[in-house]
Amino acid sequence: MGNKYGLIDPADPAFRDESEVALATLVSATAGSSKKIGAKMIVGRSGRIIGGVTIGGCVDAQVVEAADALFDKDDAERRLLSISLDDDEAWEIGLTCGGTLEVLLTRVDLGATDDSTVVAHREAMELLSAGESAAIVTPIDSGAGAYAVPTDEIGDTSPSERTFIDRIAPPLTLVIVGAGQIAMSLTRMARELDMRTVIVDGRDRYATRERFPEADDVLVGMPSEIVAAIDANRRTAVLLLAHDYKYELPVLRDILRKPVGYIGMLGSKKRGAAMRDLLHDEGFTDEELARVHTPIGLDLGGKAPAEVALSILSEIVAVYSGKRA
Fold first, then answer.
1. How far apart are CA 38 and CA 177, in angstroms?
2. d(CA 312, CA 63)
3. Are the CB atoms for 66 and 83 separated by under 8 Å?
4. Where are the alpha helices (DSSP H) in 193-268?
5. What is the pLDDT, as a whole number, of residue 35?
6. Secondary structure, 3-state, 117-160
7. CA 142 → CA 79, 161, 274, distances in Å?
């Protein structure tokens, strides 16, 4: 798949030889972990599985068979597949015990620009590209077409019929200024959390691929210029780890008035207060300056680089989950 969200894009070369595909989505499970809900696979009319993602185990074979049957019926657009699993089969796909799964199969016409799934996925991609979370809403009972909205528009209201809501968030991007030991630990841990990492440093001996093999980008140059050129949004977290005012203040002057979701600076409370005083004298408001988390990270008591990295990531997770301002 050409996009990291696994959404259907008819222009994607992965779909080049297919006129139609069946989108299979796990919409309910009576047993096991709910983390599998939303798992997907895409089956082409040719019978091949498109992309590297599947639901898993014996379910995949049943989905392929059901997709073939769906294509054979000219007037069939959707089917809700019920699959019973014993404990061993459930364990194979990541569930903790046996039960019944429901997999929604939706037929998608890749050549029809008004196909509701194609339209919904395209609109979701536009939201995600803008740094917003998207929700694809699929009515199940009526067979009405799917549609996409920003996640915050879902609200708390109950739909009039059974629906499946697939919430998709763009990955968090950590822009890390300062290529030290803490940054090295951050890139390793962040990958486990599906976060992107961008290392920024003016020292080419420190900001290297050898030291940061798991970073998504390693950028060498003036940090303030590099960070200013990054297309920041609320899914961007900026971490100032250089412990040097001449690098950090120019970055702060730029990002304090951008819609980034998290700003953190390494240092003591005294150092953080001095930085705020300097920027306050330059005209930044108390509300703007309060966005900077310094000392950075939750107070977990650790001092080693990996422990500090863990505290930073813990605070970032808390902020984005709404558990911390």
1. 35
2. 42
3. no
4. 223-229, 245-255
5. 59
6. HHHHHHHHHHHHHCCCCEEEEEECCCCCCCEEEEHHHCCCCCCC
7. 12, 8, 61
Interatomic CA distance for residues 161 and 139, integer angstroms: 7
Query: pTM of the full predicted structure?
Result: 0.68
Q: Tokens 């069946």, residue?
A: 22
Confidence at residue 222, expressed as pLDDT on a 0 to 100 scale: 95
Domains of the chain: 13-168 (no CATH), 173-320 (3.40.50.720)
Closest residue by Cα to residue 90 from 61, 55, 43 = 55
Question: Cα–Cα distance between 236 and 258 in angstroms, integer?
Answer: 10
pLDDT given for residue 325 in this prediction: 75
Angle of helix 245-255 relative to helix 269-281, nearest 10 degrees? 60
Q: Report the pLDDT value the prediction gives residue 217, as an integer from 0 to 100.
A: 96
Phi, psi for residue 165 in degrees, rounded to 5: -110, 115
Tell me how far the alpha carbon of residue 251 is from its chain's centroid.
25
Question: What's residue 56's pLDDT?
Answer: 75
Question: Measuring CA to CA, which residue among 109, 128, 189 is closest to residue 4?
Answer: 128
What is the chain's length?
A: 325
Whole-number pLDDT of residue 133: 86
3-state helix, strand, coil in the chain (%, to 5): 35, 25, 45
- pLDDT score for 61: 87
What stretches in the chain show pLDDT beneath 50?
Answer: none
Beta bridge partners of 90: none
pLDDT at 148: 94
DSSP alpha helices (H): ranges in the chain?
57-72, 87-92, 116-129, 181-192, 223-229, 245-255, 269-281, 286-289, 305-320
